[in-house]
Design goal:
homodimer, about 400 residues, alpha/beta, Peroxisomal Thiolase, Chain A, domain 1, 9-stranded mixed beta sheet, two-stranded antiparallel sheet, 11 strands, globular
Chain lengths: ~400, ~400
């Protein structure tokens, strides 16, 4: 390929605590604010941007708006004519946009691509929004007529762990507690001012409603409005940019590995298929190990930070063993030993993750990649993991149907 | 780039006259049928497929189903784990999926990609469906509370031609007549059995309702259900395939040029911006001339066939001068002189185009590319343009907001 190396040039995240529906702002206004913030944050010359790739899950349902790529041409007169596209793979839409941007750079088609992940969800109440989320699964078979289908699907993931290996819900409560605590250090996190402690995360009842089975409100990421704008670039552009910023190129993070798999869309089929596998979700595991292998990463202990897709506490519980922090089924050990805490051996979600930072669906993958950039460049502020050089992120769509893992690092 | 050359390996189109909603079939069933037809049509070994890219406009609205990439993993046990993604750029979704597949091949990431364009629209009546289509424009500003917003927007395109250059509606009627006549030669065309003649296309009234202004029913492409499955491949794969089929590689069509632009999403802004331009839609023109220049095509007279985006007769009228068949504003001359007819100097839409063949929104760009393949390989049957070697297609999204032009050809 022409440009083997793809660099991350930074970007901007909107404050995920905001309610854009209440502010009466259009989804395009949110994209525009993320774009404008990104220019201030990076000092990129707008005229250098060659294309805009937008990750969005369901603007048509939440905002009665599709064709989101097109709005980019409106942000600056220099953008009229620029190629744009919108990507969707349910909650992995953001990572898919980044993945395709990487391919376009490697092909030598564009050398600087603006990747925006965006979702405005607070237009819908939780029942309606929960129903919209059902379109990420096989709606007719798995969600039609079911209230809150996704908490139910990820509840079943916990049930499957319980069946195969045993699962004490206190570990899920601890995952929630850690993510909320981490979020308090992130000035853009949705829940940074919300109350949470272990006892509350364990309560089942009127102060912490049960959504379904083992999934309570505190086990869920929350409905979030947010956008993230990030730049991916060729080595030529990155070298020019590094020079402009007075940095050696070796200090600019780049994508050193990636994995991308699709499992059968139905959750029951995934579980049936994995009956004789070591891992509950082998296709999720494969996305991670493909990324390890492309990055030349031996195992998870070569990583300094993981940002993973904790749409529910059960998905983070799954990520712990799937990344290889423990043997399959033993994720509880990493929780018990404090491995995943901010000062642990391999911190997970110092940003607060989806449960703490928030989960504007199409934005999440881009947010995770931006957080990887921040950790590597030492600009993550109060949620910085000291000395982080190699960061992995896992973004999943549907019930772990689309799985994308990126590993970012520096050559330094 | 690793694989400069990207080849088209053929594919399959569903019968666009079918009503899948009435057949009570899911959108995934339609994708699957297109996929299965494509294997029969091409003799590709399914195990060679490395990824699936899906173009779809608004499955969430028409079918309450997103995450369409994921269904591919269900079609064959060998596809479990395959990377998939869904692309959207309104009515240009199909071309965007193909464009991105091209980039992934050029980057050396995958060497054989299955591109499926799909839309199941007959779930909605025409008022509801027309409203859904509004999400391809700036819905809140251009479509909210407006019945049939898109015929109105493309009516305004005709009005603008009329204002700048004069436009006699008889030329629009002739465009409809030609597309319907061409469709009679296409066994997959939606309107192949429908009545149409010039007099009927001119009638304004009870036998041919006025939708808005100069746009009557006969000026519109119709609500269509359909899917198209096409393969794009690297030179390595194409060489292997050609050998398997007993063909010289030079006989396999490839993408020789492409252009991709985004104009501001609002139609009024496009028109205001072009006030001092030669062309009414300069960003559409740019997509075409970018493709000419990448393909080393001097002008339209180097082409043998054009498949263009006639969502309305006015968009084909626009395409005629934007492709350069006439000077700007003089499209009527090419119509009068028979240039665009099947035996004319440069046939447009021998397939019947969107008006005759049908317009399942997200499938159209892929259908156009498949028709380019058919023309070049001499397999277009009764709508074959004899000796066609170089074919251009133009797929537009929204009110000519996203513009994608591909030119396919052979080296022979």
């Amino acid at each position: 390929m022409k440009n083997e190396r793809v660099y991350i040039i930074g970007g901007y995240q909107t404050d995920f605590a905001r309610n854009w529906a209440k502010e009466r702002k259009h989804i395009a206004a949110m994209m525009r604010e993320a774009y404008q913030g990104s220019i201030e944050a990076t000092d990129i010359y707008p005229g250098d941007i060659k294309a805009a790739f937008i990750g969005n899950f369901a603007g048509e349902l939440y905002c009665m708006q599709g064709h989101l790529g097109a709005f980019f041409a409106d942000f600056d007169p220099r953008f009229v004519g620029l190629p744009t596209m919108r990507f969707e793979a349910a909650c992995a839409a953001g990572a898919i946009a980044a993945l395709s941007a990487m391919a376009h750079i490697q092909a030598g088609i564009h050398d600087l691509i603006c990747v925006i992940g965006v979702e405005l969800m607070k237009t819908a109440d939780s029942a309606k929004g929960g129903n919209y989320l059902g379109t990420a699964a096989w709606y007719e078979k798995e969600c039609f007529g079911i209230e809150y289908p996704f908490p139910k699907l990820f509840g079943k993931l916990g049930d499957e762990y319980d069946k195969r290996y045993g699962l004490d819900n206190k570990y899920l409560a601890r995952i929630a507690e850690i993510n909320y605590a981490n979020a308090k250090n992130n000035p853009n996190a949705q829940t940074r001012d919300w109350f949470m402690n272990f006892e509350h995360a364990c309560v089942k009842g009127k102060y912490n409603s049960v959504i379904s089975g083992r999934i309570k409100v505190t086990d869920c990421s929350q409905i979030t409005d947010g956008a993230v704008c990030l730049y991916l670039a060729s080595e030529d552009y990155a070298a020019k940019y590094a020079k402009q910023m007075g940095l050696p190129l070796e200090k600019v993070p780049r994508i050193i590995g990636w994995g991308h798999t699709t499992a059968p869309i139905e959750f029951a089929k995934k579980i049936a298929d994995s009956a004789n596998c070591e891992y509950v979700l082998p296709m999720t595991r494969k996305a991670i190990t493909d990324a390890y292998s492309r990055a030349g990463v031996k195992d998870c202990w070569d990583l300094d930070v993981i940002e993973t897709h904790d749409c529910f506490t059960t998905s983070e519980y799954m990520a712990i063993d799937h990344f290889g922090l423990t043997k399959p089924g033993e994720s509880f050990k990493a929780i018990e030993q404090g491995v995943i805490e901010p000062r642990g051996k391999l911190p997970i979600n110092p940003s607060g993750g989806l449960i703490g930072c928030g989960h504007p669906v199409g934005a999440t993958g881009v947010r995770q990649l931006l957080d990887a950039y921040k950790q590597i460049t030492g600009t993550a502020g109060d949620y910085q993991v000291p000395g982080a050089k190699t960061v992995a992120m896992l973004n999943i769509g549907g019930s772990a149907t689309t799985n994308v893992c990126f590993i970012a690092g520096i050559d330094d």
